[in-house]
Design brief:
The protein folds into two domains: 101 residues; 161 residues, Histidine kinase-like ATPase, C-terminal domain (Heat Shock Protein 90, 2-Layer Sandwich), CATH 3.30.565.10. Helices cover 47% and strands 20% of the residues. It has seven helices and seven strands. The radius of gyration is 21 Å and the shape is elongated. It comes from Thermosulfurimonas dismutans.
């Protein structure tokens, strides 16, 4: 019954109101996913700690005795390492950070940080990919945790590369933007103020309209066989990191032309 009421309500919305409602629903889904990931993260981390300890003891005993089980134990350690990577991704989905963990935030200029990141990842991109960077003319001070900007930019660029099948131009830009109360009515998670805006625009295949409100959910991908082995995690991590810093993301896309991500970070006072 509640689902039917919500569908009727959605059908009565048009244009700006419908877009804001979609973003609001996306926000609610992501909060539910974050709460779920928090519980799973702690349980998996505790189990992995026990497994790692047990495997270390077995490895030492096998190494001394030359036991034929050594290769199997080595294979199990690789599986545990993969599970460890999964646990790290779950921790990154928690937009409010880990409980009991005090974050060390650093004051950074967004343009300078992005410039260095792009310079570092350029050599690892497919030969057919061109990066074009247009930095802001004014300083953009933001507060971020260690490595957070790297994860946001690298995941956005990786996502763009896959969308373009390894060929085309990716535009990255930074700018200062004043967001008014009127503009906030267009989004379900925006608020007025001054923001440092990071844009990543590709020339890829675009995202179907029915998928736009789902792209930040874990394990959701629009790229099928072209996606990397970490598919479905990159944008979910970007969403959570941006939200953790009090920001939000606006996405526009057109099939056959490409996708544009606008990341809003509040300016540090």
């Amino acid at each position: 019954m509640e689902k039917e009421k919500r569908e009727i309500f959605r059908e009565g919305l048009t244009g700006r109101d419908f877009h804001a409602f979609q973003e609001y629903l996306q926000l609610q889904r992501m909060e539910a996913i974050e709460n779920l990931s928090r519980g799973i993260y702690h349980d998996l981390r505790n189990c992995l700690t026990v497994l790692k300890g047990g495997l270390e003891i077995l490895s030492l005993k096998c190494a001394k005795s030359g036991n034929e089980l050594c290769p199997r134990i080595k294979a199990l350690r690789k599986i545990v390492e993969q599970l460890g990577e999964l646990v790290e991704r779950l921790s990154a989905l928690q937009a409010n950070g880990l409980e009991g963990h005090k974050e060390a935030l650093e004051l950074k200029d967004l343009s300078s940080e992005v410039k260095e990141i792009l310079r570092s990842i350029q050599t690892g991109l497919p030969p057919g990919i061109r990066l074009r960077f247009e930095p802001s003319f004014c300083p953009l001070p933001v507060k971020m945790g260690p490595g957070e900007c790297w994860r946001v930019v690298s995941n956005l660029v990786s996502n763009a590369c896959e969308a373009m099948n390894g060929e085309g131009e990716i535009l990255i830009s930074t700018s200062l933007r004043q967001v008014s109360e009127e503009e906030c009515r267009l989004h379900g998670n925006a608020y007025p103020g001054e923001f440092a805006v990071l844009v990543c625009q590709d020339q890829g295949c675009g995202i179907p309209e029915e998928m736009l409100d789902k792209i930040f959910e874990p394990m959701v991908t629009t790229k099928g066989e072209n996606a990397s082995r970490n598919r479905g995690w990159g944008l979910a991590i970007v969403y959570s990191l941006v939200k953790r810093r009090g920001g939000w993301i606006h996405v526009t896309s057109k099939l056959g032309e490409g996708t544009r991500f606008e990341i809003y970070f509040p300016l540090a006072k």
